[in-house]
Amino acid sequence: MHTETSLPDTAQRVADLLKSLGHDKPVVMLPETGKTSAEAAAGLGCTVAEIAKSIVFRRVTDDAPVMVIASGANRVDEKKVAAIVGELGKADAKFVKTRIGYAIGGVCPVGHLEQTVILVDEDLLKLNSIWAAAGHPHAVFNLTPQQLLALTGAPVADVALRGEN
Length: 165
Description:
By secondary structure, the chain is an alpha/beta fold. It contains 5 helices and 9 strands, in the order βαβαββαβαβββαβ.
């Protein structure tokens, strides 16, 4: 892992944004991809649960981007999310890149191109430290769940797929 010496453009944009927001931790580059929660956790030496993955959907009624920031250990229950924000559709790679501003695998919880509906997985609040993508498949940054809530202004929700379905 190395820190902000020569970051790719999108990761540098995130690093600059985080710094401007007063975030005190650097963007780090993983030697291997962090496209999946398991890959990111292996590269960071943390648990999969500590990876805050950003899953993007498209709200059917108004075509708005909807992002769920979930624990890497959880699958997102689309029915629970839809009950909160409205009917969901799939967001393809082009939708994510043009509306959010990042490529899939590096979608950061902040710095979106347009207003995004965001929900934060309540299970992340059980952790002391989490890692989120920083605009590039190899770039991540560390923060607390409370910092994630402050940076995004997003509400906490039960979004995990559990045995009851």
